[in-house]
């Protein structure tokens, strides 16, 4: 989800809620402690130099159980970060602490922002020797002809 999409949704919401893909909710008293632009410059295993930009939201829970972040407050934080940091309209990555700091993609299900699990991937599969997935065939459906089949004692095996 891009920053512009979040900005468009916030004025339509009564509350800001986040839940994880497993269905558990981020506690209602969370804080957004950071909004920033992260630029990642890297080289993949195939030698290609790449740049990736994401907008980062960091969620944090404190012991102030009465705290509730209202949509207008989050929108103001976003606008301030755009003004002061020059944040671009990029995909959002959310940091949230569970057992360790997790990084999540963001989606919206009509009521709630959903923290989607991220996965790793090789960006240069053609350059680093990862074979393409083989076509799966059902052995019972193979059409065998006399010219390409072996028989016991036939000398072809």
Structure report:
- With 157 residues, the chain is of the alpha/beta class.
- The chain has one domain (3-115).
- Helix content is 14%, strand content 31%.
- The chain has helices spanning 3-9, 71-85; strands spanning 18-20, 30-43, 49-61, 92-97, 101-108, 113-117.
- A 6-stranded mixed beta sheet has the order 1-6-5-4-3-2, with helices on one face.
- The N and C termini lie far apart (56 Å).
Oligomeric organization of the protein chains: single chain
Q: SSE order in H/E notation?
A: HEEEHEEE
Bin the strand percentage. Answer: 25-35%
| Rg of Cα set | 25 Å
Per the principal axes of the C-alpha atoms, what is the gross shape? elongated
- Return the domain count: 1
Annotation, overall tally of beta strands: 6
Mind summarizing the main beta sheet?
Answer: 6 strands, mixed
Helix tally?
A: 2
- The helix content, as a percent range, equals 10-25%
> Would you tell me the structural class of the helices and strands?
alpha/beta
Distance between the termini: 56 Å
Mean of all residue-level pLDDT scores: 89
The low-confidence parts are none
* Widest sheet, order of strands: 1-6-5-4-3-2
């Amino acid at each position: 989800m891009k920053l512009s999409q979040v900005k468009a949704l916030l004025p339509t919401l009564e509350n800001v809620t986040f839940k994880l893909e497993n269905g558990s909710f981020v506690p209602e008293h969370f804080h957004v402690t950071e909004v920033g632009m992260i630029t990642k410059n890297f080289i993949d295993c195939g030698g290609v130099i790449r740049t990736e930009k994401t907008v980062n939201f960091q969620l944090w829970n404190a012991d102030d159980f009465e705290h509730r972040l209202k949509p207008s407050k989050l929108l103001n934080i976003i606008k301030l970060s755009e003004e002061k940091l020059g944040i671009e309209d990029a995909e959002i990555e959310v940091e949230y602490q569970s057992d360790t700091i997790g990084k999540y993609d963001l989606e919206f299900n009509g009521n709630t922002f959903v923290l989607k699990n991220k996965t790793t991937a090789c960006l240069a599969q053609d350059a680093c020797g990862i074979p393409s997935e083989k076509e799966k065939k059902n052995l019972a459906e193979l059409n065998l002809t006399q010219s390409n089949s072996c028989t016991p004692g036939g000398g072809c095996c």
